[in-house]
Specification:
It is globular and about 55 Å long. It has a domain at 47-189: Ferritin (Up-down Bundle). The chain has a two-stranded antiparallel ribbon with strand order 1-2. It is built from seven helices and two strands. Helices cover 68% and strands 3% of the residues. It has helices at 2-26, 33-36, 48-74, 78-105, 115-125, 129-157, 161-182; strands spanning 39-41, 44-46. The longest helix has 29 residues, at 129-157. It is mainly alpha-helical and 214 residues long.
Length: 214
């Protein structure tokens, strides 16, 4: 009886082992969710973050170019008019760059601004004079600060050479545009989001004076 039970257990163990091997061969390996979103391109893998950068640069131009046009006739400050013209011209340049990059990478870009951006455009289209100047400068300065963090984060870690090039160009433009807007003297820096709190610094090891132990 005991021999029979041992034989049955041995056969059962063998069956389980064979079944495990069969499942391992049939079932696909676990896939990293992030890697599953990658697309291979001639310039390297394209990630969801890379695509998001292309979208955000494109949409920034789609509302900032019309906003710059508004400044020609709605702004009171001569400097705001000048800044509006500069932003419109340089976003046309940047928009051409992002469309060229997207074509190389096979990415379909949006054709309209985000709902928030459309709301900002409507707000500016209804204003003139000092109210326009103030809101134009502060809306665009806040928007540039947000897109800057996206561009910088992608630039620091993208595996795609084309996206890396575009992100580098984007950082240059966004930094320059923040400077333009701040040159008007109308930016309310107290209303900008504060930088994230840095992580605690690791403890510093105490230096040991080896002379005391000599």
């Amino acid at each position: 009886m005991h021999r029979l039970m041992r034989g049955e257990l041995f056969m059962l163990g063998g069956f389980v082992a064979v079944a495990a091997v069969t499942i391992a061969l049939v079932m696909p390996p676990a896939i990293d969710p992030a890697a599953a979103q990658w697309t291979q391109t001639p310039s390297g893998p394209l990630t969801a973050a890379d695509r998001d950068l292309l979208f955000k640069v494109r949409q920034a131009g789609l509302w900032e170019m019309p906003a710059g046009e508004y400044a020609k006739t709605r702004a009171e400050s001569q400097r705001v008019k000048e800044v509006g013209a500069l932003l419109m011209k340089e976003h046309m340049e940047l928009d051409l760059m992002v469309r060229q990059s997207a074509k190389k990478l096979g990415v379909a870009l949006p054709d309209e601004p985000t709902p928030d951006q459309q709301r900002w455009m409507a707000q500016l289209a209804s204003q003139r004079g000092p109210a326009f100047d103030r809101d134009f400068v502060n809306l665009l300065r806040a928007a540039h600060g947000k897109v800057f963090t996206t561009v910088a984060a992608v630039r620091s870690g993208t595996r795609n050479a084309e996206v890396r090039k575009l992100a580098g160009q984007g950082i240059t433009y966004v930094m320059r545009h923040m400077g333009y807007l701040e040159s008007t003297g109308l930016v309310d820096h107290t209303q900008l989001p504060e930088p994230p709190t840095p992580s605690p610094a690791p403890p510093v090891a105490m230096a040991v004076d080896t002379r005391r132990h000599a």
